[in-house]
Amino acid sequence: MAFEITGTGMAAPSGRVTNDDLAAKIDTSDEWIRSHTGIEARHVADDTTAASDLALEAAVNALSMAAEARKESPEETGRSLDLIVLATATADYFGCPSTACLVQEKLGASRAAAMDVAAGCTGFIYGLETAAGLLGVGSERRLALVIGSEVLTKFTNWDDRSTCVLFGDGAGAVVMEKTDPQRPGKRGLIRSVLGADGSGAEHLLFRRGGSRNPYKEGETVDKPIHLEMNGQAVYNFAVKAVTDTIGKLLALEGLSLDDVALIIPHQANARIVQAAAKRLGVQEDKFFLNIQEYANTSSASIPIALDELNRRGALKQGDLIMTIGFGGGLTYGGNLIVW
Ligand code: UT7
User: Fold this and answer.
1) CB-facing half-sphere around the CA of 115: CA atoms within 13 A
2) 203 assigned to active site
3) Which position among 51, 84, 306, 319 has the lowest Cβ density within 10 Å, counted as fewest Cβ atoms?
4) CATH number at 188-338
């Protein structure tokens, strides 16, 4: 049994905000943002766009690609879905319904089970492994859609320059099919490492609005619910999480970094990747970066990168690729995929 990725897709809102645009409004500069993060621009959703809208667009793009191989229409592939797993920290609605259910309805995927995954920026990595598990041994399910979708700019404190310059909106999706391998050797998703360290929960959180700190009747609120971050603590966690997770994935499969064609990291900060590459003793170009265009789109950053690479023809059949992520929770993880 193999869990192959047969389609990829992405969506980014048309609104594009450069560092200079931000510097015209808040106390920052293009030079600071570029040199501290590698970000040059971010895409920002308009008032009418929610996570499910971006998710749907990315999903339709991924389904269209998968449909070609299945020799059917994207609508038919959508209706054949057995499962939708959607990673997000910025759901359309608080708690219920899941954003996955909204996408399920819009796709007409009436036979699909649908659920959200809350694992911060590691959400897509958790989502892939969750989908493979639910398609796994003994299950009649064969076809899954895994999505990461975020509209972080709606939950940003624009008075906090240490966070507001970092985030962008977008979505990425993949179609995963359970296949019975005809060709020898491993293919598709072959291994994941998932982990968490809840002792770091305070370092990246939406402090207000949940059952710990609900908004009270009559309370005057001067800011929308927004993400707070202890940047230094998350940075240190991230560098260690990236290097340790890469080491674990390689050790579990008896591989070395030379066997890996490309590492696709969560796009949070180019400096995190540079520090990890230095620790691992590999060239930085072993890691793919597109943070300059999209900034940090949390759970969407890895599937957006996958789709960009796939459509560019940069992923060859048989290539061993690795995703690596970290984020709110704190969580971390990685997937090994034979393309
Ligand atoms: O995906 C979720 C996971 N999130 C992350 O992975 C983020 C991890 N953390 C980071 O990437 C980095 O810690 C940041 C990019 C958030 C911050 O970079 P830093 O090099 O750690 O900056 P800092 O917080 O130490 O701040 C250095 C200086 C401060 O000024 P002083 O006190 O030295 O005078 C800040 O006030 O930079 C100042 N600063 C800014 N200046 C201009 C902070 N933000 C800005 C800004 N523009 N946007």
Assistant:
1) 14
2) no
3) 319
4) 3.40.47.10
